Amino acid sequence: MLSKKAARAFFLVGTAVCSLAMVGLTIDSFRRIPAQTHADRITPAVARGKDLWDHNNCMGCHTLLGEGAYYAPELTRVYRRRGPEFIRAMLRDPAAMYPGQRQMQNYHFNPAQIDDLVAFLQWIDGMDLNGFPPEPTLNQVALPSGAIAPTEDRPQVFNQLCVACHTLGGRGGSVGPALDHVGDRLNADYLTRWLHDPQAIKPGTLMPRLPLTEPQIRELVAFLSQLRTEVRP
Q1: In the chain, what are the domain boundaries?
Q2: 3-state secondary structure of 103
Q3: Residues near 184 by Cβ (< 8 Å), separated by ≥ 6?
């Protein structure tokens, strides 16, 4: 049992030690910020993108670096999760990406502004945030056994664009049909024509014309054509 004098001394010493530790940790954090945020990568485009983000109150719907609203998706790692093609298409015409669904307001950004916002989100994505936020499970496929298979062998454009609307192995979006065994239903020629211009094949379809390059289309067709029902002896 401490005496009154000893308890008072213990309180004062403990408070001083904790205060010093807090000051030291704060100073250390501020010293680490430039390196961990890669402040040297803040280009004029990144600065303009940040101004657009603030001016249009994007945090009124989205969360960035743990701050903002939860009405729309969290965007701290959206650059690596969806890629620049998806971000540009979404900013250009949100309604075309998710027709008939709850969608982002169209701010009618011009191409230069879209490039600035992409640069800003790329810079945010490159920050060292000590593991925050945790990696999403969107790019994993559930095996019949219940295990989770890595998907590094899937085209990057598939993981960034296609899974936003389609599922594969039970994971992905719900706007379009599941792509399991799509190779059984559609041949390579049809898939190629579909990816070039879905509206030309099926007028009124919900799928937009995606910003795909010819190499990306060939890569997707090759991958989708392999998604077939396993033939067992």
Answers
A1: 11-38, 42-125, 141-225
A2: coil
A3: 228, 229
For the segment 25-37, the average pLDDT, to the nearest whole number, is: 88
CB 115 within 8 A of CB 104: no
Residue with tokens 């940790």: 25
Within this chain, domains 42-125 and 141-225 share the same CATH topology = yes
Q: Are 115 and 122 in contact (CB under 8 A)?
A: no
Instruction: Please return the burial class of 147, using the count of CB atoms within 10 Å of its CB with bins 0-12, 13-18 and 19+.
Output: exposed
The structure tokens listed for 129 are 């945030």
Q: What is the DSSP letter of 169?
A: T
Per-residue model confidence (pLDDT) at position 136: 56
Q: Between helices 188-196 and 214-225, what is the axis angle to 10°?
A: 140
Look up the CATH number of domain 141-225: 1.10.760.10
CATH, range 42-125: 1.10.760.10
Q: What angle do CA 194, 148, 128 make, to 5 degrees?
A: 90
Contact criterion met (CB below 8 Å) for 109 and 52: yes
Query: CB within 8 A of 134, min separation 6: which ones?
Result: none
Q: Residues 92-116: what's their mean pLDDT?
A: 87
Q: What is the pTM of this model?
A: 0.71
Q: Locate tokens 């945010």: which residue? A: 124
